[in-house]
Fold this protein.
Amino acid sequence: MDINALQPEEIKNILEKENIKGYRASQIFNWLHKQLVTDFSKMTNISKDEREKISQIFEIVIPNIIKKQKSKDGTKKYLVEFEGSADQVETVLIKNTSKRNTVCVSTQVGCPLACKICATGSMGFRRDLTADEIIAQVELVYRENDGIENIVFMGMGEPLLNYKNLLRAIDIINHPKGLNIGARKITISTAGIPQKIEKLINYPKQVRLAVSLNSAIQKKRKEIMPIAKKYPLHQLIPAIREYIKQTGRRVTLEYVLIKDFNDQEEDVEALWELLSEMNININLIPLNPAPNSLYRPSSLKIQEWFQQQLHGNGINTYLRKSRGYEIKAACGQLAND
Ligand code: SAH
C-alpha cells in the first residue's frame, strides 16, 4: 500500500493490525513529510527489524526527475516520473519578485478538457494522478529548493476532475505535523465544473479558488474551451456566486488575453455585466501561443487598455507577467515534450 497520502491515524491503524507499536506512525509521518525522507532505511529512530517489517507493509511513491530546465527568470521545470509507472508529468517552480517560491502542481497525466489554447489539452488524457503522486511533486520541489511558500494546482490536468485525490493530497500538504503549508497559500484552479465548485463549499479548509473564465461571452468561451458546452456560463457563474456567498472568500478569475478574440470592447462590456456585484478579482494572462496555433497574444497596449477598462468599473485586475516562457514552463505550455 502507498503510504504518502495516509494520515497519521491511518498509518497507526494499519501498524497496530500488524502488531507494530502505534506511536511509530507519527515518527514515520515526520520522516516522510517533515524530513522529506523517501526511504524507510533512513528512519533511524525505528529499529532495523521494525523498519524491515514496515517496508513490507507500505510503499513510498518516489518521484524521479527525468529532466530539469531553468529559465532566465529563475523558473524551473521538472519532468517527473514516479517509480513503477511510465507516466510523466511536469511540475514548475516559480520564483516571484519577492523571492517567494510557488510550485505549480499537476493533477492528471494529460488532460481530458482539450482547451484549444493549452498545450496540455492537445496531449489527450492518460489518467488521474494518485494523491501520493500529487504530494510527491510538492515534496520533491520543496526539497530541491529549500522550501515553498505557495502551491497552485495549475499544472497539467483539471484538479476538480480528480477531486478526491486532490483533497487528500491537500490534507497532507497542509498537515501541521508535515509541511504545514497554510490552506490560504494553496490555490485550486479549475476550467469550471459547477457541481464540483459547489461541493468544494463544504471543504472546511480555507483554500483559494481560481476559475479560468477566458471569456464572458458563451459563444467565444466554448470556442476555446469545449467544457463550456457542457457547463455554460449560465450554470458556472451561479455556482461561483454561491461559493463566494457561502465561504465568504473572494474568487480569482483567470482571463487569457487573445488578440482580436477576447480583447475587444464587447468583451469588456460582457465582463462588466456578468461580474457585477461579485467579490472577484481578475488575473489577466497574455496568451502564450502554442505551436501551430492561430491564436496570438494581445499587444501590450491592448493588455493595458483592457486592464484599465476593468479597473474603471471597479474590478480588481492584475496583469500577470508570464514566467518560464523559453523553457515552455509558462501557463498553457506544459506538454512533456
Ligand atoms: N485545468 C485547470 C488548471 C490548468 S490551466 C484550469 O483550467 O484552470 C491553468 C491556467 O492556464 C488557466 O487559467 C488557463 O486559462 C491558462 N492557460 C491555458 N493555456 C494558456 C496559454 N496558451 N497561455 C496562457 N495561459 C494559458
User: Anything to note?
Assistant: DSSP finds eleven helices and twelve strands in the chain. The pocket of S-adenosyl-L-homocysteine is lined by residues 117-118, 154, 158, 189-191, 212, 214, 254, 256, 285, 287-288, 290, 331-332 (CB under 6 Å). The first strand starts at residue 63 and ends at 70.
